[in-house]
Write a structure and sequence with these properties.
alpha+beta, Glutamine Phosphoribosylpyrophosphate, subunit 1, domain 1, 15% helix
Length: 235
């Protein structure tokens, strides 16, 4: 495992990222989702609560340009499942799981974002808590090294994640033009502290110029009780 904060500090532009794991004391299922931005349109956003989840919203509606890839619900809850993604595939997973399909089957209906030449990967995570049991699924859909005619699909599942361990997946390996897509399996990272220290450590490690918003949640694996934090740069 590597230190999550150091990993974030070493990358000026990881883009959007999902962390899912288990708290060091073993009591909580843990997740974080952050967004970053280089353009004014991307930076003009905040997270707001919506039901048991969240959605993105324009901080200044007058400055909103193209909402197609930046306004969506990153987090939705369906019974024992918490869905976390970097786009409107949150709704795809929610709706198709309602119809009886699996996480992986739902995402086979989607592919990377149509934002040439970057073809930003769609990253997704699923937390399942049931009667004290906890497991994780993560997915990335990306182009074949910038070839938009081929979509590469990877799904990773983690049964009974260990205390203090998390898995981190993000959209870009760093800044660039075009932006280089994430490579490899989700990175194993340490999960430390309570929700407030976990939130502060991630927020403070993200690049000051590019960070936009952060969502974190701790879910008690035995009781289902949730703790949630939202941090927005725009206030």
């Amino acid at each position: 495992m590597i230190n999550l904060e150091q990993e974030l500090k070493s990358n000026e532009y990881p883009g959007r990222g999902i962390v899912i794991g288990r708290s060091a004391d073993g009591k909580y299922a843990v997740t974080a989702y952050f967004i970053m931005g280089r353009s004014e349109n991307s930076r003009n956003r905040i997270f707001v609560t919506e039901g048991e989840g969240i959605r993105t919203e324009a901080f200044d509606p007058a400055k909103l340009e193209d909402p197609s890839l930046i306004i969506y619900a990153p987090v939705r809850v369906r019974g024992d499942y918490t869905i976390v993604t970097n786009g409107d595939q949150t709704d795809t997973v929610y709706d198709l799981m309602e119809a009886g399909q699996s996480f992986e089957e739902a995402l086979r209906t989607r592919e990377f974002e149509p934002d040439a030449p970057n073809y930003t990967p769609r990253i997704s995570g699923l937390m399942h808590i049931d009667n004290g049991n906890y497991d994780i699924s993560m997915s990335i859909l990306k182009s074949d090294k910038g070839d938009a005619s081929r979509c590469l699909r990877f799904t990773y599942t983690y049964d009974k994640p260990a205390a203090g361990k998390g898995y981190f997946i993000h959209t870009y390996m760093g800044d660039g033009n075009p932006l280089p897509s994430y490579e490899g399996e989700p990175t194993e990272v340490e999960i430390n502290g309570d929700i407030d220290s976990f939130t502060d450590n991630i927020w403070n490690a993200l690049n000051e110029n590019n960070k936009v918003s952060l969502f974190t949640r701790f879910i008690n694996i035995e009781t289902g009780e949730t703790q949630t934090r939202i941090v927005n740069k725009n206030k």
